[in-house]
Write a structure and sequence with these properties.
By secondary structure, the chain is an all-alpha fold. Helices cover about 75% and strands about 0% of the residues. It is built from 32 helices and no strands. Helix 4 (about 30-55) packs across helix 11 (about 200-225) and helix 23 crosses helix 26 (about 510-525). The radius of gyration is 25 Å and the shape is globular.
């Protein structure tokens, strides 16, 4: 099988729900249902702008948010494209029937939200007991949520939601720890509809109050042409190095991924420029695609925005936003430095050529042309970290900064006329997040109701013999499995509700436990066999997706190590004395460098690959550096220095010969 054949079979839009939604926006602009969906998308954005200043009551605020998203989803992703489409796609009758069902689902969504609001308002009058309308609303919402998630995210997420509902029903028949008192369908439906741990719980709360505004900011920023500026700026800084194009990809994708929060969408957005550039300089196709996948995935762990992760962690842990950002800084820097060492090493041993000087943009010219984007990003950072406004207001300030600041742009890359289209794009861009959060809310609700999270945590700790390392390892594997084929937001929410409490029982701080879980939920995007970000990169690079995923794991290997380090030593999260922070960060940095270079087969060896034995020694010494032991760190640094001297001397002798 040739390298290009697997890549040709990859439908990149099918890998990511955000890309699929963007495609539907373009396809449906000239259809009746498409135009109605566009109107709802614009209204949804307008609703969220208004509620930044005056939020509705809890259920109405979150319910209208869900209703808008599901309306757009059912209108723009018709049923006939998601059921029996190969068999009846050409039948006009079939399409009409499907459209009737879509309209019925839209009406049922708004009716269910109205019933939820009514029952929630009358809870106090009924002494906290929900009526039958709550059961009807909960049943409708469960079916609608599962169907919305199926159309938008595939079958994995709704299958998980349905599995936990069934568990709540049959738990009284199960033996041992898995058993519980059991619940009727009526109880479950009422709980999902009006309880604040139900569908309208924490996950939808964060989506409605915070995440949407940053989705809108990403839509505004993308429309302004900021991605081109970031690409040019990164290339102007790194272009003179042999590994310059790859380093530029790491920097550019990290910055864009931090804002848009979707690894696959970021691979497609920046990878169309960076991957061909890396290939043109001599990087192998699978390596170039792997670099882009690693950098785009890592954007979600990079402060200050961290996709949606930081805001969800604030909701789950109760920690201030600034505390989450501060804790995440050093681990994220180590992740990207590990990737940087990998691309530098590969640039030394591969047939990589320097870029011609005339193809490298000058930093001064890039800043002169695009300084205006730094003002926009600076406004967001100022609102979040300095003024410490609410995340929703900070996101709105970022959105407003785009058209206002771009008024001073001589090239007029963004005008006031583009505001409505950016708002519409935000509505479509939020579909996967809302569907994922609503479906994850079903899972979280059943976990909370049945107590399976506590039981599962106890089972996992007992299986690990109450040893921290094995418990962390089991948690990491479980997060990666849960994240296969799911958006990071959805996989993190589920893992956080089930796995993070178990880690807390081992004495790990809640924020540390959640950051650990979030890391591996993100890394599932590059981990075989279902590595969506790697598959997207392979589709652009025209190479084998599985080889791309393997390369991505090697390039981003630091990401698999760093979470274990900060669980053992909180100084990496800037929690400790200055000496402790410097020591753990220094040893981890040297260890990540050794691991990355060893995996790529280079270590001060003058554009020559080192032997397998040398690689094994260097990788082993790199591991020693990240272990929580001063003695092992000393062994590691001595070993790495010795190997650097040995390989450098040997390389000089071979060159002289």
């Amino acid at each position: 099988m040739s390298n290009s054949k697997p890549a040709k079979e990859i439908d990149i839009n099918a890998l990511d729900s955000d890309l699929a939604a963007a495609k539907k926006l373009e396809e449906g602009k000239n259809t009746v249902f498409g135009k109605i969906a566009v109107a709802f998308a614009f209204t949804m954005s307008l609703f969220h702008i208004l509620t930044v200043f005056r939020q509705l009551d809890v259920i109405p605020q979150r319910g209208v948010h869900v209703a808008f998203a599901f309306t757009i989803l059912f209108l723009s992703m018709p049923l006939y494209e998601h059921v029996f489409k190969d068999k009846y796609a050409g039948s006009k009758t079939f399409r009409v029937v499907c459209r009737i069902i879509d309209v019925a689902l839209v009406i049922a969504t708004w009716a269910a939200i109205y019933m939820c609001c009514y029952e929630y308002d009358h809870l106090s009058e009924n002494l906290g007991r929900a009526g039958m309308w709550a059961a009807v609303a909960g049943g409708l919402l469960l079916v609608i949520t599962l169907e919305a998630a199926r159309r938008c995210l595939g079958y994995i997420m709704p299958a998980l939601g349905l599995l936990f509902v069934v568990y709540a029903l049959v738990g009284k028949y199960l033996p041992g720890q898995l058993g519980h008192r059991g619940y009727t369908l009526t109880d479950i439906f009422k709980y999902l509809a009006v309880d604040l741990d139900g569908i309208f719980g924490t996950t939808i709360s964060v989506s409605a109050s915070t995440i949407f505004m940053f989705v809108m900011f990403g839509a505004f920023l993308e429309a302004s042409g900021c991605s081109s500026f970031i690409n040019d700026l990164a290339l102007s800084v790194t272009g003179k190095l042999r590994c310059g194009p790859a380093l530029a990809a790491v920097v550019a994708s990290a910055l864009m991924g931090c804002i848009n929060g979707s690894a696959v969408a970021n691979v497609v957005g920046t990878g169309t420029f960076t991957i061909p550039l890396m290939k043109s300089r001599g990087y192998r196709s699978d390596f170039a695609a792997g670099v882009e996948a690693v950098a785009s995935t890592g954007g979600q762990i990079l402060p200050p925005v961290m996709g949606a992760g930081a805001f969800l962690m604030v909701a789950f842990t109760g920690e201030p936003y600034t505390a989450v950002v501060v804790a995440a800084v050093i681990p994220a820097v180590l992740y990207f430095l590990g990737a940087a060492f990998a691309v530098y090493a590969q640039g030394e041993v591969g047939n990589v050529e320097l870029m011609p000087a005339d193809q490298i943009p000058k930093t001064r010219d890039v800043l002169k042309d695009g300084w205006i984007y730094l003002v926009i990003i600076g406004a967001l950072v100022w609102a979040l970290l300095i003024a410490q406004y609410s995340p929703a207001l900070s996101g709105l300030i970022g959105c407003a900064a785009v058209p206002l600041v771009m008024l001073f742009d001589k090239k007029k890359r963004y005008t006031l006329k583009q505001i409505p289209s950016s708002m519409v794009k935000a509505g479509y861009g939020a579909l996967s997040i809302v569907a994922g959060c609503a479906c994850a809310g079903v899972v979280v609700a059943m976990v909370s109701r049945t107590g399976i999270g506590i039981v599962f945590g106890d089972m996992m700790i007992n299986a690990a013999g109450k040893q921290m390392f094995l418990s962390l390892l089991f948690t990491a594997v479980a997060c990666i499995i849960l994240g296969m084929g799911l958006p990071t937001t959805s996989s993190y929410i589920i893992a956080a509700s089930i796995l993070a409490p178990a880690l807390a029982k081992l004495g790990i701080a809640p924020l540390t436990a959640h950051l650990f879980v979030f890391y591996f939920a993100c890394l599932s995007a590059i981990t075989p066999p279902v590595a969506l970000a790697a598959y997207a990169g392979a589709g652009i690079a025209k190479c084998d997706p599985m080889m791309t995923a393997i390369q991505a794991c090697k390039i981003g290997f630091a990401g698999f190590i760093v979470p274990f380090v900060f669980c053992y030593n909180s100084a990496m999260m800037l929690d400790g004395t200055l000496l402790d922070i410097v020591k753990v960060c220094g040893t981890a940095l040297v260890g990540c460098a050794g691991l990355s270079c060893g995996l790529q087969g280079w270590f001060f060896s003058r554009q020559r690959k080192i032997s397998a034995i040398s690689r094994l020694i260097i990788i082993t010494m790199g591991f020693c550096m990240v272990l929580p032991s001063d003695i092992m760190s000393i062994v590691g640094i001595i070993g790495l220095v010795a190997m650097a001297v040995f390989e450098s001397t040997r390389s000089k002798k071979l060159s002289a010969a």
